[in-house]
Amino acid sequence: MRKYVVMGVQGSGKGTQATLLCREFDLVHISVGDIFRWHVQHHTKLGAQVRRTMAAGELVGDDQVEAVVRERLQQHDWNYGFVIDGFPRNGRQAEFFLESYDIDGVIHLDLPDEEVHRRVLNRRLCSRCGMDYNLIADRPEVEGKCDVCGGELVTRADDTPEALAARLREYHGKTKPVLDIFRRKEYVVSVDARPDPDTVQRDIRQKLGL
Q1: Region entry LID: which residue ranges (predicted)?
Q2: Which of 9, 28, 110, 198 could pair with 78 as two cysteines, CB 3.0-4.6 Å apart?
Q3: What pTM was estimated for this model as a whole?
Q4: Using the 8-state DSSP alphabet, how is residue 186 labeled?
């Protein structure tokens, strides 16, 4: 059984790399961001709270995040292991995670802030089916329309320059210290997230010995 954490600033490709790793090794991808977005799209009580938080460029509170992660991992549908992204994001969450689960490695996707701005501000989301697009390398055939369902492509509520600046401050102030906690356990492999996804994935597997 393999259990990995993918960490990195927004736009570093955590979801993409987690998906590629899961596909090859039959692992379950657990995206905390996707779980919260599902609640937002389905207008749950938690979704309303998350929408307000994201629009302000803030991170969801520790208690809510830990409860969501705990509930998801208790489903035990990850027979061969999991890759989790979007968690932990601060020291308290890291300590909670290390106390609760044995992990095999932390994949740190390293991306400079200027590249984060370029990637994130070019992201679009289908308002109907939720398909992700990036206008840099993944433009739809018809501008502003989803290739899958024809729905309108919109900017995520949290993909604004102001919200991004707030999240970067939060990341550098709280999330990067989490890496130091994991490094003390010798769990962390650092990978340059600037190349194309396949190159990044090869680097990840090499450094993890897969």
Answers
A1: 122-159
A2: 28
A3: 0.75
A4: T
